[in-house]
């Protein structure tokens, strides 16, 4: 095994052990015993720029805007959207991530990033920064199959607003 491979492995293990979990490395308001599903979803919507369902159509790497490392690219996730609860509806969007890939093809583990899969559908709570949408592991973003409770609350919130 090459020395750089050992260093990359050691770094990845250190990050994984230090973070413990995505939630541990996020700055998240702790849940209170008095919180209801509605309160939790309301807070997530309030903290989001856009909330919608979508299916991943592609995962690509584009040149990083900040080229501190020559040839570095950043992962983007292409989505076909469905139902929208917040934000400006669009049939297709691109989510940006903070998952870098160096020119040599090395991807880096970022503990707070959500791992999307092509073909899977998600309920996405996205934030906006620098003109791009992001939805990482610190949001309530989740696979659509695991989001039925949130969708019920989102529909109820939308009905209350009308």
From TrEMBL:
Top-level taxon of the source organism: Bacteria
Organism for this UniProt entry: Duganella zoogloeoides
Keyword tags: Signal
Lineage: Bacteria, Pseudomonadati, Pseudomonadota, Betaproteobacteria, Burkholderiales
SUPFAM superfamilies reported in the protein's UniProt record: TIMP-like
Cross-referenced InterPro entries: TIMP-like_OB-fold (IPR008993)
Protein name, as recorded: Uncharacterized protein
Annotated signal peptide: 1-23
């Amino acid at each position: 095994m090459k020395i750089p491979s050992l260093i990359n492995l050691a770094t990845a293990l250190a990050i994984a052990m230090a973070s413990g979990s995505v939630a541990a490395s996020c700055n998240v308001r702790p849940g209170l015993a008095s919180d209801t599903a509605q309160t939790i979803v309301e807070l997530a919507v309030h903290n989001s720029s856009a909330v919608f369902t979508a299916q991943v159509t592609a995962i690509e790497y584009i040149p990083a805007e900040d080229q501190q490392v020559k040839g570095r690219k950043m992962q983007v996730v292409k989505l076909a959207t469905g139902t929208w609860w917040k934000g400006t509806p669009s049939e297709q969007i691109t989510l940006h991530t903070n998952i870098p890939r160096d020119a040599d093809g090395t991807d880096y583990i970022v503990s707070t990033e959500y791992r999307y899969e092509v073909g899977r559908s998600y309920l996405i709570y996205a934030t906006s920064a620098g003109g791009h949408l992001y939805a990482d592991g610190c949001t309530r973003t989740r696979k659509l199959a695991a989001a039925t409770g949130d969708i019920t609350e989102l529909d109820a919130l939308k009905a209350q607003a009308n």
